[in-house]
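Complex record, two chains
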Amino acid sequence: MQAETLTGGFADAPHDAAHAFRAIMEAMARPGTIHRIAGAQPPAPLSVAAGAVLLTLCDPETALHLAGSADTGAVRDWVTFHCGAPLAGRGQAAFALGAWPALLPLGDYAIGTPEYPDRSATLIVEVPVLEASGARLTGPGIATEAALSLPETAAFQANARAFPLGLDFIFTCGDRLAALPRSTRIG
Amino acid sequence: MTEHYNFAYLDEQTKRMIRRALLKALAVPGYQVPFASREMPMPYGWGTGGVQVTAAVLVPEDRLKVIDQGADDTTNAVSIRAFFARTAGVATTEATAEATVIQTRHRIPEVTLREGQILVYQVPIPEPLRFLEPSEVETRRMHALEDYGLMHVKLYEDISRHGHIATAYAYPVRVAGRYVMDPSPIPKFDNPKMEMAAIQLFGAGREQRIYALPPHTPVVSLDFEDHPFEASKADHACGLCGATDSYLDEVIVDDAGGRMFVCSDTDYCGSRQAAGHKGKDAA
């Protein structure tokens, strides 16, 4: 176990988590808007935002899938120490974290059932660029239309067509995040 | 006193569970997400669902307003405001425009809510189909199949019996063309306001359900082409401030059957009176 495993969590968990959650909730309620989030110092290659999302939402009740380059020994130790979230495969995961290509294919994740559409995975996507331009977004949470730099469009369009089933996405880049719920239509 | 409680009373694990439910509720507008409702230091029916949602979204910088049937000065509203002032150390207010989080029992404030505000509803029975179908297994299947014919039959029976749709509060709505949702027992006068710029969160503590409306979500009150939805109110002006656009309570004022109509939203009425508006019963 490295020293960095024990550090980098919220310094003041109740207040830091409250601020972080407000940013995540505003992002999910207003798709396409970009919010700053702070308080976490996770090991590389995780971004500050991805670390803060994990600390805010993950705990022993939520299985987490680490995809591709996010699945390092240091990250596993950090998640285990700070969140206690059990690591799992894609099919069992409530949350999945990684770069976009590593998270694919989306068909492996739980999208909920017709009676319980909430029993679906939330994907935390580490993106190199996050800006309010690119794909055109409409739907709940958006007054007229919004724009967001998505890694691709076809997969998100297919996800939106499955509404009310589907995955929800949180995009993280440095200390900023945006979100794309399944209710948002793309293009 | 705040040092004796965790921030906003609930433990962190509980808040995470509620926060995850809130995110799924926002992602599927109008769908009721089950959550593990906790016992709170107040009885069910006094807003335990709303209190848990408020506790999960509060930040220390928030300014909290709590209303009960529109009023800031009733026992329930005063108690919940004091609860969060003590356990979360947040500032409180009675002014709608100054509040960042508003917890409400059965009303939407008259002042238009804006981006950056959160409206938290206390919900007694979250399932709009419950009085038509007592089985949770059945109502869940009806939502899954979009099988809402029974609700239209209920509204039709209203018309055949009373000549009009007699449902005056908790009037069912269709959210974003998909889920039929109970707007909590707000008067149907408030239904058109639900398409707003603020985030709306609904918490039902005893029934253990959370649901939500993101800003600008289409919310349509169910009706028929020949019996369109009408947002009704008492056909009077407020006796104290003279407002003709606000929802009114009828108040008995003496033993001789005397009565007056006053705004249910005390902050709205108070600010109008402070601005010099006067109704016919004003002193």
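Note: Residues 125 and 207 of chain B are 7 Å apart (CA to CA).
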